[in-house]
Amino acid sequence: MNLHEYQGKDILSSFGVRIQRGIVAKNANEAVAAAKQLTAETGTGWYVIKAQVHAGGRGKGGGVKLAKSLKEVEEVSGKMIGMQLITPQTSAEGKKVHQVLVAEDVYYPGASETSEFYVSVLLNRGTGRNMIMYSTEGGMDIETVAEETPHLIFTEEIDPSTGILPFQARRIAFNLGLEGNAFKEMTKFVTNLYTAYVASDASLFEINPVLKTSDDKIMAVDAKVTIDDNALYRHKDYLNLRDLREESAIEVEAGALGLNYVDLDGNVGCMVNGAGLAMATMDLIKQAGGEPANFLDVGGTADAARVEAAFSIILKDPAVKAILINIFGGIVRCDRVAQGIIDAYKNMGNIDVPIIVRLQGTNADIAKKLIDDSGLDVMSATEFQEAADKVQSVLA
Ligand code: GDP
Ligand code: MN
């Protein structure tokens, strides 16, 4: 589950991680009230208005703007709320901005220069350990840093049995070139950040930039937080942080039906049981000259109701030109799946894209006969290659 910047910052703050403070607003009036409150609490005279959407690169798309007066807060937030924000990380049509974060300006001048860093916490799948990845090149997109100046990215692996140790926090602050109070603040920042990551069952914390202010404070200016869905049962208080407006409507609907569905850009819909077979099926479609329109794992119980639900989800995608059903009957018998497909097809009425069904496993022969005798416009296949050839023939 992805969170908005303001929600991620709330979690960080609750673990003692210093953040750029802000208040969320749904319209220009609320934004002005938020700005007044921020001034009362922090003394700030300038503000940053930040679009709250699940996409990075907002600054580049006009979703992060400085406002130097309450009047500018009103103007900027009035324009930003309701706009379609297009950033390097959104689709071409962009994302609708429903709310903004009115934040204190933290790039104020002072005794020293401000500097921006990159700090993230994530799982290193190679070692099975969490790691802190950090760089002196903050504020830039980290993929570019990785490509152009990979020596400026550092990692610190954390032993799960000890958590982050003081010497590791000091090494991070040292490698970031910090001294004095900023050095001390950074050790506290990364220590609390790591603790927050583990305690919230997050799968990603990406803080870009982490700012060293002109008076040597270290704080999170941005926060990209992803909570591991599999751990949400342990965090009932996070459940209401989900913002369905930010998620693909079709994926949300599929999720509600208990289907594992990921929307993709191609033209061949697939319905498969098991994630591994689903991946193999997507490869098969590519080899046949098609592009998968989705990843869909119907799970172990591919009965008529589930098959019908899966059909209805796949057919919502107007790009789908053919559907490939690839089911391995292990626990579930193929003839029951075949009957499910036939029933679902009849219930749905006019499905006007060709359907290719490959059923393999227990009672595959009975299943094939059921499909062939059904009189429906469904092609059956037994072998992988045969299914691929049939996909190729319908796309031609
Ligand atoms: P992103 O573009 O979606 O990653 O949004 P960020 O929250 O990272 O903000 C983008 C950029 O806006 C930052 O890298 C900063 O340079 C700038 N920015 C953020 N907060 C402030 C602020 O308080 N004052 C000023 N002057 N700039 C800010
Ligand atoms: Mn950022």
From TrEMBL:
Residue stretches making up the ATP-grasp domain: 9-236
Sequence positions that bind substrate: N273, G330, I331, V332
Positions that bind ATP: K50, G57, R58, G59, V106, E116
Residue ranges the record marks as coiled coil: none
GO MF entries: ATP binding; magnesium ion binding; succinate-CoA ligase (ADP-forming) activity; succinate-CoA ligase (GDP-forming) activity
EC class name: ligase
Cofactor(s) named in the record: Mg(2+)
Family matches, as SUPFAM superfamilies: Glutathione synthetase ATP-binding domain-like (SSF56059), Succinyl-CoA synthetase domains (SSF52210)
Cofactor binding: number and manner: Binds 1 Mg(2+) ion per subunit.
Pfam families: ATP-grasp_2 (PF08442), Ligase_CoA (PF00549)
Catalytic activity line of the entry: GTP + succinate + CoA = succinyl-CoA + GDP + phosphate; succinate + ATP + CoA = succinyl-CoA + ADP + phosphate
Enzyme Commission code(s) on record: 6.2.1.5
UniProt key word Ligase: yes
PROSITE patterns per the UniProt record, alphabetical: ATP_GRASP (PS50975), SUCCINYL_COA_LIG_3 (PS01217)
Any one cellular-component term (Gene Ontology): cytosol
Pathway connected to this protein: Carbohydrate metabolism; tricarboxylic acid cycle; succinate from succinyl-CoA (ligase route): step 1/1
Protein residues bound to Mg(2+): N208, D222
Keywords assigned by UniProt, alphabetized: ATP-binding, Ligase, Magnesium, Metal-binding, Nucleotide-binding, Tricarboxylic acid cycle
Record InterPro entries: ATP-grasp, ATP-grasp_succ-CoA_synth-type, ATP_grasp_subdomain_1, Succ-CoA_synthase_bsu_CS, SUCC_ACL_C, Succ_CoA_ligase-like_bsu, Succinyl-CoA_synth-like
Gene Ontology BP terms: succinyl-CoA metabolic process; tricarboxylic acid cycle
Family: Belongs to the succinate/malate CoA ligase beta subunit family.
Role noted for this protein: Succinyl-CoA synthetase functions in the citric acid cycle (TCA), coupling the hydrolysis of succinyl-CoA to the synthesis of either ATP or GTP and thus represents the only step of substrate-level phosphorylation in the TCA. The beta subunit provides nucleotide specificity of the enzyme and binds the substrate succinate, while the binding sites for coenzyme A and phosphate are found in the alpha subunit.
Complex and partners: Heterotetramer of two alpha and two beta subunits.
Name of the protein in question: Succinate--CoA ligase [ADP-forming] subunit beta
Species in which this protein is naturally found: Gelidibacter algens
